[in-house]
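Office hours follow-up: a student asked to see two folded examples consecutively, so here they are.
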Amino acid sequence: MKEIKAIVPPQRLPKIRSGLRNIKGFPGMTVTKVEGCGHHVARPILGVREELTDYSPKVRIEVVCPDELVEGILQVIVEVAHTGQVGDGIVWVTTVERMVRLSEQVSVLDC
């Protein structure tokens, strides 16, 4: 099992969701509104107000899925979210050691 996390601009979410729903066996996702700033080249800060509002709205997408779905999910996210512009976002994959599906009684899955 793997966990895929992506942080992307919110306007990309509808197309990503649509593409992911077309993947057979897609397990679903969690979406959270977040704010952040990237590694872009620093510019001079004019004041405290500007420094404290340097964040842009994003959404974080989280998916826990079987290993065989990872490449398809990554492909959808990258193809839809990539524009080549600063602020496109980031995607990463981590290994999930265990998952418990709470809707099923006593279903502990070792991954």
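And the second, which I mentioned at the end of office hours:
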Amino acid sequence: MAKLHSRKGGSSRSRPPMVTKAPEWSDVSKEELEKTIMKLHDTGMSPSRIGLTLRDQYGVPNVKLVIGNSITGFLRDNNALADIPEDLTNLMRKALHVRKHIKANKKDVHNKRALQLTENKIRRMVKYYHDSGRMAPDWTYSPETAEILIS
């Protein structure tokens, strides 16, 4: 896939082979894994952090092969998903940091452009989440609301 804001082409990469069942060495049961995911979510971890913790500390190679659903899908089924998606939250956090940097360094034109690109990604992602029904249709991005939500 090509880059979003440049005329450069993307690079190809290898992908892991399609696997339909959990490996034999993984001995985690479905119920035990579901309890662990909910426990980690209750401590305030994001879905990506939960996946890393399950991989590194619990030895779960792929949650989807055990549960039959992704971590985000499992949390959605249990009504435990956050109001604002994780990728959108990360982009808003990045925009806030760049905005704070620009306020201190007014002549930094490169980061002004980076802020424009980041906020454009945010608006595009908000539009996607509106269309998919993941977020309320009247929710709009503004730096003030982002600062309130992220802080």
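Two things to take away from it. Helices lie at 30-42, 47-57, 63-67, 71-77, 86-104, 109-132, 143-150. The chain has a mean pLDDT of 92.
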